[in-house]
């Protein structure tokens, strides 16, 4: 007779727990195996109780726009490099990460996508996000202008197919030739069409949303500023209920007043915090490569060596969460929506992650009284054991 095995139950007791229904003080969260079993549970022989009094438990963070970390790149690195970046962000609370590329030749991007797709199949990544090359040279940011191209639907399809089912999002400038047709193609393929690095007018942006675009890539950055006679893409993306807006809450990319404007206009259900992180996230200052571009990181700010444009960020989502609730004045529930629930919904994973509910993956973050990260669990296993 085969031995009987008992799945370990872990009860996280005494913490403030942020649930979809609200914040529960002195709550109990039960984990059984890789899943959340219940919001409370009776003690039993196989139960391990972890006292988290004075702490806050929130869902694991979900990052839909991330180029690397820990000194490693998702854009050009090996499988080991990519896993180093994934581990770095997990240690900072990001239990689900989409790997973002940067502009490069199509064949180079296709080769990297093949590698990334293997890690998606293994469960290490949640998908691939192509940021470029289908973007405007007027708003190229940290992308190589010589490698930019119009979003011809045939090329867009090529990259999506290179991802072998792992492509989740493509950022493009819909005002370029082929842009609207490519948005329609992506919508038909079930891939998120994101508007970004764009010089589109208000009207062109609305046309893209009508065609199926549903995300604004790092809103405010790499697009025309909001003007009273030419509102441009910002106003169109903020006002349309079909669009979720990415925000980089690192204190460098956005002024706090602009963050407040975005939340006030779009509402907490339509904001997704992202890192737009590059290799230096969780690693430190120095010189790095971002695809074919050279980057210098000084005092935690990444800029191109040539031209000085901001080149992604060194942000991790635990820092973004702490800023949100301590400096930006967001409620715990609204911060959780922006950093977990909304991006999980965008990825089509809301049945598995994004909230602390029975049956979902046991992905969670433990924060101390100052909202500093002290614990991370992913699929029931401690990545960072609470201390």
Automatic annotation (TrEMBL):
CDD domains noted in UniProt: NagA
Q: Which InterPro entries match?
A: Amidohydro-rel, GlcNAc_6-P_deAcase, Metal-dep_hydrolase_composite, Metal_Hydrolase
Q: What residues does Zn(2+) bind to? A: 131, 197, 218
Requisite cofactors: a divalent metal cation
The terms under GO molecular function for this entry are: metal ion binding; N-acetylglucosamine-6-phosphate deacetylase activity
Question: Which Gene Ontology BP terms does the record give?
Answer: N-acetylglucosamine catabolic process
**EC number in record:** 3.5.1.25
- Entry annotated with the keyword Glycoprotein: no
Pfam families membership: Amidohydro_1
Q: Which UniProt keywords apply?
A: Carbohydrate metabolism, Hydrolase, Metal-binding
Q: In which pathway does it act?
A: Amino-sugar metabolism; N-acetylneuraminate degradation; D-fructose 6-phosphate from N-acetylneuraminate: step 4/5
The chain positions of domain Amidohydrolase-related read: 56-383
Record field: catalytic activity: N-acetyl-D-glucosamine 6-phosphate + H2O = D-glucosamine 6-phosphate + acetate
Which residues act catalytically here?
A: 276 (proton donor/acceptor)
Q: Does the keyword Transport apply?
A: no
This protein's name: N-acetylglucosamine-6-phosphate deacetylase
Upper lineage: Bacteria, Bacillati, Actinomycetota, Actinomycetes, Kitasatosporales
